[in-house]
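Record filed here:
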Amino acid sequence: MPSGNSVDNIPNTGAMQTGSVTEFNVDNLQEAVDPGDSDQYAIRYMGYMWIETEGSYTFYTSSDDGSKLTIDGTDIVTNDGIHPVEEQSGSATLASGIHSIEVLFFENTGGEELTVQYEGPSISKQNLPFSILYPCSDMDTDGIPNHLDVDSD
């Protein structure tokens, strides 16, 4: 649980567990990692996103409580604080290719929900498909994770 009830205070270290997921289902993930403790927790999703077509994209998070979506290190959607389900959006112009993406979420009692959506060139508003998302990994198998690598991956 982040101090100050803000996604900006979710720690970068000390995770109870790390791994790959195939959906933004905070209930299932929390139950798998820490069964029975569903009132106060935080989740950091990190990876990469493939953008097929260059253009302007709008991203949405709908959450109870706080959430934030960052692309290539830039905050796109901030939906922070303790609140019932609330949707916020933000836009970015993206080149075709791979972009880093991070989604932060925290829960502090009551209901919990996280939905991540997007729309863009020839794409109507929809859930961000995991088919365009990739985990933080070593795509060129040089032993350096992609997010730290400066060569061609």
Remarks:
- The first strand starts at residue 40 and ends at 51.
- DSSP finds one helix and nine strands in the chain.
- Residues 26-33 form the longest helix (8 residues).
